[in-house]
């Protein structure tokens, strides 16, 4: 087995784990600080803006890890990838990331305005507009793209066997949940990073077992 065959899955696993943990932490910080109702009056800002600021600072690093995860998974698929599903896989992943960053940028703008003129933010209606836009982008559009990404990844997994079939079918079920949850479940976005974490841990463990088997085979030959 070549060095690339060993290191590529490991790189994908590490990137996926990093993305998952960073996004889970970011989503948890936001949801613990910000109320579910997008039409809230902004009372949480006084005590929760620091937590949300930390969450927003984690997102760029999560995005970098996610890009790395996409690239390494495509490299692992290689010539076996289906062009149609590979295009959907790449497109949905990039759209998810773009909308994740867009929602974070709007939220970050709200916090900056609050830091400069707290009273003006609420009275002018800027907070209500920004909060609603952030909610819609993240909980509706970004999560729908995450669902499409999960469907395409699961389909590619079934065709190439890079993960067990039960993980692929679990991906289909969770993707449908994201597609049709319609923002009704406040913690629903955590489904996506948790699924990526599951896939990444499997890839990492499989790679470690493969490396150990290869080393054992070499010792036997010697």
Structural class: mainly alpha
Mean pLDDT score? 83
Number of strands: 0
Report how far apart the termini are. 16 Å
Helical content class: over 70%
The secondary-structure element order is HHHHHHH
What characterizes the major β-sheet? none
User: Could you tell me the strand content as a percent range?
Assistant: under 5%
Q: Are there runs of 5+ residues with pLDDT below 50, and where?
A: 1-6
The helix count comes to 7
**Oligomerization:** single chain
Q: How many separate domains?
A: 1
* Shape estimate: elongated
Radius of gyration: 20 Å
Question: What are the main properties of this structure?
Answer:
single chain, 222 residues, mainly alpha, 84% helix, elongated
If you had to describe this structure to a student in words, what would you say it looks like?
This protein has one domain. Helix 1 runs antiparallel to helix 2, helix 1 packs antiparallel against helix 7 and helix 2 runs antiparallel to helix 3. The two termini are 16 Å apart. By secondary structure, it is mainly alpha-helical.
What's this entry about, in short?
With 222 residues, this protein is an all-alpha fold.
Write the layout of secondary structure elements.
Blueprint: H1 3-33, H2 45-77, H3 83-116, H4 118-123, H5 126-160, H6 165-180, H7 191-221
Helix pairs in contact: 1-2, 1-7, 2-3, 3-5, 5-6, 6-7
């Amino acid at each position: 087995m070549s060095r690339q065959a060993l290191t590529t899955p490991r790189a994908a696993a590490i990137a996926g784990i990093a993305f998952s943990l960073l996004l889970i932490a970011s989503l948890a910080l936001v949801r613990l600080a910000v109320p579910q109702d997008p039409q809230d009056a902004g009372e949480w800002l006084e005590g929760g803006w620091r937590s949300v600021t930390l969450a927003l600072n984690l997102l760029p690093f999560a995005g970098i890890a996610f890009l790395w995860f996409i690239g390494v998974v495509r490299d692992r698929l290689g010539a076996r990838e289906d062009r149609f599903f590979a295009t959907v896989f790449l497109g949905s992943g990039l759209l998810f990331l773009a909308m994740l960053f867009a929602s974070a940028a709007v939220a970050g703008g709200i916090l900056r305005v609050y830091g400069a003129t707290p009273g003006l933010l609420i009275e002018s209606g800027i907070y209500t507009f920004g909060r609603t836009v952030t909610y819609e982008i993240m909980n509706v559009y970004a999560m729908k793209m995450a669902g499409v990404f999960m469907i395409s990844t699961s389909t590619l997994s079934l065709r190439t066997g890079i993960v067990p079939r039960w993980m692929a079918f679990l991906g289909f079920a969770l993707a449908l949940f994201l597609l049709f949850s319609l923002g009704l479940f406040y913690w629903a976005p955590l489904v996506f990073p948790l699924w990526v974490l599951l896939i990444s841990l499997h890839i990492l463990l499989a790679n470690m077992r493969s490396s150990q088997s290869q080393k054992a085979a070499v010792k036997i030959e010697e």
